[in-house]
Amino acid sequence: MSLLSSRADRRAWWQQRLAPLLVRYDRELVAALRRPGDRPVRPTKVRLQTRHGRVDALLYAPEEQRCDLPVHVHLHGGAFVMRRPRMDEFVAQHLVDRLGIAVLLPDYAVAPQVRYPVAHEQVHDVLLRLSEQGPHWGLDPTRVSVGGFSSGGNLAAAAALLARDSGGPRLRALTLGVPSLDVASTWAQKAVSLPAGAQPMLGASVLELVRATYFRDPDARRQPYGSPLLAPSLSRLPPTLVVTAGLDLLREEGERFAARLDESGVAVRLHRVEGRDHYFLDPTNVAAELDLLASHLRTTLA
């Protein structure tokens, strides 16, 4: 069967090719965060071997310190079909500048080239490889955290569950921004929780693209790593920050995940950005929201 045998696969393939044109907010947010005298951090390209082949990544670190750095692994979004780590470069720049830590942006695989669980297992393996390769890059393998936005939040939550269930690595923190945590529910089931008349940015076609490409197998959508909200237990996860947006289609699942963490005895902070949809960051609020992320990592990681 051809890689692009379905309409959904062809659509996903074109979105990958057009990602540099479709994703434009990153430059605006970098500019909004820049302070007088700031010098952009130039990333180093590194490679990590996983059970599904090599994963390239961008490593951002302060120039003046290159040993025993805590490292935060941040996973970009893009509905499991867009492949562009630099779309969240503004996160890496901000955390390096504010905390003096290292930030790793992995270039994990996406659909239609792969299906679940390839990207999920790649991310977990990246965390494992940091314990071996990290010291060569000046990183402290005992101080690692993981997080992500949207589909990257799904991968981050799953990686934390995989690390817990497989005996490592030990993570210091988990950060989830407008995360996708339940790919089993339909668009209509998710939309019930929105205010009457709301027209969420994530339309039914986006969710169906996810389900028809990366999560093509219906059984995979209900697996605990595919839909972390459905995991039987959320106990023993690292201290977690969950950020939701008031008008986002994914708001309820993020807040339910936070509630379950609290019930399980996990230290969790839930922050809702009122009046915002899925793209909850813009130049007017990005500094404040990323400072919240930095505060969480300052107390748990750095």
From TrEMBL:
| A Pfam family it matches | Abhydrolase_3
Protein name per UniProt = Acetyl esterase
Q: Name one GO molecular function term.
A: hydrolase activity
Q: Which UniProt keywords apply?
A: Hydrolase
What the entry lists under InterPro entries is as follows: AB_hydrolase_3 (IPR013094), AB_hydrolase_fold (IPR029058), GDXG_lipolytic_enzyme (IPR050300)
Boundaries of every Alpha/beta hydrolase fold-3 domain copy: 73-281
The record lists the organism as Nocardioides aurantiacus
